Every structure is written in C-alpha cells, then in structure tokens.
Structure to design on (498 residues):
C-alpha cells in the first residue's frame, strides 16, 4: 500500500495486540502518545481495546491468585490474594489511559455494535468460526467506531496493529475496500518517520549527529560512573538506565528451558555493561531537536512464564539468560544542551553475547568488518604492509576528538587458527579460541561439531577480573576510550559483578 502521496493522518488508532502480546504497557502507550504529540497527531484508544486489556489483566490476576493459594498452603503467605472484579480493572485502566496527555478513548457506538454482532453471526467482515465459537464482533466494532470518529474519512487515521486481516475485512464489509485502510504493522518509530514526517522542511537541528553522539556517550558514562560509586555491594547494583521492553531472542545454548514457558516475558537483569552507541540520528520536530539513537548493553535477561506440571497444574518459572547483548532504541529531546524526555522507542532486541564461528578467519573478519568498521564517527587508518591476505594485521582507530587506539594481531598459526588482537592504549585483548569439546565422534574418522568451535573472548589487563567469554567487554573499553573528549579521563574499567 503506497503511503507516499497520502496526507498526514490526524490520529493513530492503537490495537490491543500491538504491544506485549495484548497486555497493556502504560509506558509504551505514553511514549507513543508523546511522539505523536510532537507531530500534532492524536492517539486514539477504542473503548473495546481498553476492555480487552482489562480482560487480559484479570487473567493475570487469576494466575496470581492460584499461585498465592499454593503459597498460602505452604505457609509462605497469610492468605490467598484475590483478583479484583474485571469491571474495576477496566475502570482503573480507562482512567490511566485518559490521564495520558494526547490520548483520547474512543467511546463505543450502538450502531457499530449492532453491525459488529451481525458480522460475527453471519461470518462477514472479521466474523469467523474458530473451534466451534463465532468470533469477530470486538474487532469489527472498534474499527467501525474509529472510522465513525474520523467522520468516515479513512485518510484521517492510521491503524497500528499486528492483525491487519480483521481491519481490512471490516473495511470490505463497510464498503470502503481493503486498500482504503491505512495500516502499519512495523515498529512505531518507523511509522512516525515514514507516515507522519512533516511535508515541509523544518528548522535545522541545533546540533550535528557527531555532537549528539558525544553528548549521549558522556551522559551515559556519567550515569554509569554514578551508579558504580553508589554500589555498596549490599544488594543489586544501582540501576543507571531504564529498559522496560526486551524480547526473549534466540537462545542457542543456555535457553532451552525458555521453550517450556507459556507466554514468556523477558526483563533486563539488574546489572548492565554499557557497550557503545552504534548509531545516532538528529531531526527537527517543530521547534524541538530530537535525538534517536541505539544503546548496546551487555547484561543478563530474566525470562518468566508459566509451565504445566505432571498434574496439569500451572506454576510460574524463571530462566536466566546470561551475557546477552541488547540493542535498545531510545529517543530524547535536546533541552539547554542536555538530554530530556528520554524514553525507549521500541522493543530491545536480544541475542547471545557469546559469538561463535567455524574458524578463526571468519571470527576476525566479523570482528573487523561488522564491529570495528561500523562505529559511527570512528575511522580506521590501515598500514598496507601489515596484512594477512585481505585482512589488516595492524591498524589505528581514531575517535571524533582525536583519541587513537593502535591494534595489532598476533596469529602464530595464521588467521585460520587461534589469534589475539591487542589494543595497546586500553591494554585490552580479544582472543579467538578453538574449543575441542564441541566435536562429537560417531566412530573412527567420523565426527561433527555440535556448535561452531571458535569463540571470541575479552581479555582485560591482569588483575581486572575473569576473562569474559564474549568480545563486548573489550569492545566497550576501546569504544569508551575513543569516543571520550580529550579533557575527559579515560573511563575506568571495573570488575564485572556476578
């Protein structure tokens, strides 16, 4: 569906299923409303969507009640926790939504409700028969209500959803045709950039992307240092960054138990290492200078969910995924030279921090081309005479403010074998190590690797803790050194808390 020639909408309509598998995340809704307000676009929440959130929340309370009954029987609680009435939950959620600036709850209309019931009974529009039960009235009614609220002009609204089929089916039933529906199923930040960007050029941003990168990096490093200074080790380390939405992500090694969880939910652990800021974009929105950027963190991810025991009872379980690399999108507004209104834009991606390769050459190529060469505003000066085939064995990294870092490769057996890349200014190393334990023998002369045998590990200076089995601890130290301004001291490398 081409959106380039269509006018900017007056409102965005949020579907139940768009965030967190149908569970209300008030922070995300508020963040979306704030982003839309900068474009003079309203956020509409149909009444039916609020009711569906309430129904899902009541189910969570029911699970909590069952768990509390078992805990009370075990003597861990004085009594069971009782779920509030679903009507009370709905009223509370509706008030919370109405209190968000730039949010409008679209009321239900009797005519739309009648038409929706007809769709469900006759199987028209989104009406369907699923496992012997007729469904579709809710989707039909809220889409009809939103369209009526837009004075029956489809161009005035964009539907933010993960279920485009039912919206298109309702449009067909109404008579508009599926192509008339403006639907977005991707991330809301991409929607804002592509559909809601102002047609006329606005003011030039107050700072460049390079200056913004320095500001973001120094702000984050200051928060890291403050948290480290406040850590008395009597409890969890102090939080220095707010990450509220994390995907589970791939779990090739230690996460098999995750697949046993029903409706798993991921949450960042209390400790996080600041790795880098891989990209920054700066734009003007009205009179504001808006910074959109990514932060990479090395942390543990706690995944919780329900499981069934042998008696078909449900219980809550948790799985910890260790050393995960998070890629977190943030946005902020520049106010008086500082970052303000910082919030997470979309779900943080999560993948294992431990990276594995078929041989040392692939590992070095990945490190050089997909990590070191991609850092924004950091350049690489090659020494052509120091190469191993097409790969440089000695080079200099240069940061935006003139700081440098010299890297040299030691590979006695060639790049296909074990090797070490040493960073001289930060006294850090990244080593490629072959793991012989991955090989499984099926018989004489016949074997296979259960996983790629070569991994990368960070090797800090002597006396600075264990050698992490991932490259990001070393990369974080090198990046922090290069990105810092000349008058700033090099960030201290602290030991990793277990």
């Amino acid at each position: 569906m081409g959106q380039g020639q269509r006018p900017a909408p007056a409102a965005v309509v949020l579907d139940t299923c768009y965030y967190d598998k149908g569970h209300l995340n008030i922070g995300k809704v508020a963040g979306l409303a704030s982003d839309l307000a900068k474009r003079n676009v309203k956020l509409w929440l149909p009444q039916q969507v609020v009711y569906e959130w309430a129904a899902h929340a009541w189910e969570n309370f029911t699970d909590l009640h069952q768990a509390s009954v078992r805990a009370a029987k075990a003597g861990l609680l004085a009594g069971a926790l009782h779920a509030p009435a679903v009507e009370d939950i709905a009223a509370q959620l509706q008030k919370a939504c109405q209190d968000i600036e730039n949010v409008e709850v679209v009321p239900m209309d009797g005519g739309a409700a009648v038409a929706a019931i007809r769709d469900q009974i006759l199987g028209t529009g989104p009406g369907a028969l699923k496992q012997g039960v007729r469904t579709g009235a809710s989707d039909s009614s809220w889409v009809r209500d939103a369209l009526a609220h837009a004075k029956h002009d489809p161009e005035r609204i964009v539907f933010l959803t993960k279920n485009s089929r039912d919206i298109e089916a309702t449009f067909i039933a109404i008579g508009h045709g599926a192509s008339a529906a403006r639907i977005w199923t991707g991330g809301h930040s991409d929607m804002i950039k592509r559909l809601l960007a102002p047609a006329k050029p606005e003011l030039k941003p107050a700072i460049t992307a390079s200056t913004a990168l320095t500001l973001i990096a120094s702000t984050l490093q200051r928060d890291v240092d403050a948290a480290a200074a406040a850590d008395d080790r009597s409890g969890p380390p102090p939080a220095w960054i707010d990450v509220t939405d994390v995907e589970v992500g791939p779990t090739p090694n230690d996460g098999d138990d995750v697949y046993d969880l029903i409706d798993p939910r991921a949450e960042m652990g209390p400790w996080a290492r600041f790795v880098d800021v891989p990209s920054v974009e700066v734009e003007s929105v009205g009179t504001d200078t808006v910074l959109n950027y990514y932060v990479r963190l090395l942390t543990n991810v706690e995944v919780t969910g329900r499981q069934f025991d042998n008696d078909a009872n449900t219980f809550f379980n948790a799985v910890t995924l260790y050393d995960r690399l998070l890629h977190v999108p943030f946005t902020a507004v520049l106010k008086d030279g500082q970052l303000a209104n910082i919030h997470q834009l979309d779900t943080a991606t999560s993948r294992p921090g431990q990276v594995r390769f078929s041989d040392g050459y692939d590992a070095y190529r990945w490190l050089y081309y997909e990590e070191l060469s991609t850092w924004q505003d950091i350049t690489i000066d090659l020494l052509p005479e120091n190469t191993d085939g097409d790969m440089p064995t000695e080079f200099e990294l240069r940061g935006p403010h003139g700081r440098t870092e010299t890297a040299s490769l030691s590979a006695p057996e060639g790049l296909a074998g074990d090797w070490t890349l040493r960073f001289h200014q930060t006294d850090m190393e990244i080593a490629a190590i072959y793991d012989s334990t991955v090989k499984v023998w099926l018989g004489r002369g016949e074997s296979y690797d259960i996983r790629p045998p070569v991994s990368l590990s960070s090797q800090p200076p002597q006396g600075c803790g264990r050698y992490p089995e991932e490259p990001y601890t070393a990369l974080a130290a090198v990046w922090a050194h290069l990105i810092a301004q000349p008058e700033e001291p090099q960030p201290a490398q602290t030991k990793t808390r277990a």
Q: What stands out?
A: Residues 47-73 form the longest helix (27 residues). Residues 11-196 form one domain.
